[in-house]
From TrEMBL:
<keyword id="KW-0576">Peroxisome</keyword>
<dbReference type="InterPro" id="IPR006076">
    <property type="entry name" value="FAD-dep_OxRdtase"/>
</dbReference>
<dbReference type="Pfam" id="PF01266">
    <property type="entry name" value="DAO"/>
</dbReference>
<keyword id="KW-0285">Flavoprotein</keyword>
<protein>
    <recommendedName>
        <fullName>D-aspartate oxidase</fullName>
        <ecNumber>1.4.3.1</ecNumber>
    </recommendedName>
</protein>
<feature type="domain" description="FAD dependent oxidoreductase">
    <location>
        <begin position="5"/>
        <end position="323"/>
    </location>
</feature>
<dbReference type="GO" id="GO:0008445">
    <property type="term" value="F:D-aspartate oxidase activity"/>
</dbReference>
<feature type="binding site">
    <location>
        <position position="223"/>
    </location>
    <ligand>
        <name>D-dopa</name>
    </ligand>
</feature>
<comment type="function">
    <text>Selectively catalyzes the oxidative deamination of acidic amino acids. Suppresses the level of D-aspartate in the brain, an amino acid that can act as an agonist for glutamate receptors. Protects the organism from the toxicity of D-amino acids. May also function in the intestine.</text>
</comment>
<dbReference type="GO" id="GO:0019478">
    <property type="term" value="P:D-amino acid catabolic process"/>
</dbReference>
<dbReference type="GO" id="GO:0005782">
    <property type="term" value="C:peroxisomal matrix"/>
</dbReference>
<dbReference type="InterPro" id="IPR023209">
    <property type="entry name" value="DAO"/>
</dbReference>
<feature type="binding site">
    <location>
        <begin position="36"/>
        <end position="37"/>
    </location>
    <ligand>
        <name>FAD</name>
    </ligand>
</feature>
<feature type="binding site">
    <location>
        <position position="308"/>
    </location>
    <ligand>
        <name>D-dopa</name>
    </ligand>
</feature>
<dbReference type="GO" id="GO:0071949">
    <property type="term" value="F:FAD binding"/>
</dbReference>
<comment type="similarity">
    <text>Belongs to the DAMOX/DASOX family.</text>
</comment>
<keyword id="KW-0560">Oxidoreductase</keyword>
Length: 406
């Protein structure tokens, strides 16, 4: 049976996790990932990778919770396996603290993370500026290890990776049957989507191995997230700013704010600054589209626009994108199946025409040409007679002669 050729554009978190999900669940296909940047040079490499949901106003809470739960449960099972350290996934406990008591004390994701509860008075004493807090255990993906692990899993499933900048998705129609667009902020150019915009982020990656608990200010602007190899200090949010150069003023400001929450950070060493553009949208674009040029069609499945919360929902959205790819795949595979016998019928017809010509040529040489030469071709001018005359054996046979006499 013909194989469907699927290409995923993008090698960040979305591209790789979607490619792995497709190659895990659709057997009769080839999966390639094509991108101009791979780890450690994607936005996903800059992220802290904490599983704390970010709100998408254009998506129902029910849907967001489902994506978060699917992602959390999936990563928890990896975390409980021998793959955990290579994949860079670990459990981390800590506090989300608020200067004023929030209206919603129990967020929608509180029963997905582990051990969600309000902080005790004793715990809150560490943060004299804050009035209320939530304690819970969640998961964290360390990047680049997680991206490298995903790429390895894709290759184990037979997937391929190619470094290439795509100028137009249509250029892929010659070599692939289905395109999956996971190009993050690159989608603005690739699809002309005006709803997606960058929110510039800047973080510090520091060496402070004594930090074991996360601390997040409820406004989401200041955070301390310990990872396996370093601690991520944040952050910054600048809408529509495309500048990827680190800003030293923002770096100082981040260190000041984080050290106010955790004074031991003043002694942190090996400070590295990273900048990334969150691919932001009111809702993640998870959608099928068919590109049409002249009479040709190219099915595309989009999975981009995860903003500041990609890690928290990536497996859920990869599963949803895979479901859309399966729908497209069923159509593509039928078209391929239909086309291949047609092609054979076409070849068969050509072959039959060739044999007809050969037979006509043989007939010319053996029947018509000798008659022309002997000059009695006029006698045979009646076409029907001519056809009957060809059966010379019958005409000379006894039964035929008897028939003529009668
Ligand atoms: C500072 C910061 C901190 C963050 N912290 C967290 C966090 O703690 N938790 C959380 O859940 N989320 C966090 N995020 C958000 C998260 O990083 C993003 O949602 C996620 O990384 C988006 O992944 P992506 O694969 O869509 O995009 P990207 O990682 O940007 O990948 C896009 C890919 O598409 C490719 N591409 C684009 N255009 C083209 C083209 N024309 N041709 C070929 N290839 C192309 C790129 O090369 C790249 O490979 C954070 C983000 C930032 C910036």
């Amino acid at each position: 049976m013909a194989k469907a050729k699927i290409v995923v554009v993008g090698a960040g978190l979305m591209g790789l996790s979607t490619a792995v999900c497709i190659s895990d669940s659709i057997t009769n296909c080839s999966v390639s990932v094509m991108a101009d940047r791979f780890s450690p040079n994607t936005t996903s490499d800059v992220a802290a990778g904490m599983l704390i949901p970010h709100l998408y106003p254009g998506t129902t809470i029910h849907q967001q919770k489902q994506w978060f739960r699917e992602t959390f449960d999936h990563l928890l099972s990896i975390c409980n396996s021998s793959e955990a350290s290579e994949a860079g996934i670990h459990l981390v406990s800590g506090w989300q603290i608020f200067k004023a008591v929030p209206e919603e004390k129990t967020p929608f994701w509180s029963d997905v993370v582990l051990g969600f509860r309000s902080m005790t008075e004793k715990e809150l004493k560490k943060f004299p500026q804050h009035k209320y807090g939530q304690a819970f255990t969640t998961l964290k993906c360390d990047c680049p290890p997680y991206l490298i692990w995903l790429e390895k899993r894709l290759k184990e499933n037979g997937g391929q990776v190619h470094v290439k900048k795509i100028e137009d998705l249509w250029e892929l129609h010659r070599d692939f049957d289905i395109v999956v667009n996971c190009s993050g902020i690159g989608s603005q150019k690739l699809t002309g989507d005006l709803e997606i915009y960058p929110i510039r982020g800047q973080v510090l990656k520091v060496h402070a191995p004594w930090i074991k608990h996360f601390i997040r200010d409820g406004d989401g602007l200041t955070y301390i997230y310990p990872g396996i190899y370093n601690v991520t200090l944040g952050g910054a949010r600048e809408k529509d700013n495309w500048n990827l150069s680190p800003d030293p003023i923002i770096s100082k400001n981040i260190l000041d704010r984080c050290s106010a929450l955790e004074p031991s950070l003043w002694t942190a060493e090996n400070i590295k600054v990273r900048v990334g553009l969150r691919p932001s949208r009111s809702a993640v674009r998870l959608q099928k589209e068919v590109l049409i040029h002249k009479n040709e069609k190219l099915p595309v499945v989009h999975n981009y626009g995860h903003g500041g919360g990609g890690f928290s929902v990536h497996h859920g959205t990869a599963k949803e994108a895979t479901r859309l790819v399966k729908e497209v795949y069923n159509v593509v595979i039928h078209v391929k199946w239909f086309r291949s016998p047609c092609r054979h019928v076409g070849r068969y017809t050509q072959l039959m025409e060739f044999w007809s010509l050969c037979l006509a040529a043989v007939r010319m040489v053996h029947v018509v040409f000798p008659r022309l030469m002997s000059g009695n071709w006029l006698m045979e001018s009646n076409h029907v007679e001519d056809c009957q005359c060809e059966t010379t054996l019958d005409k000379t046979s006894a039964s035929w002669q008897n028939e003529r006499k009668r």
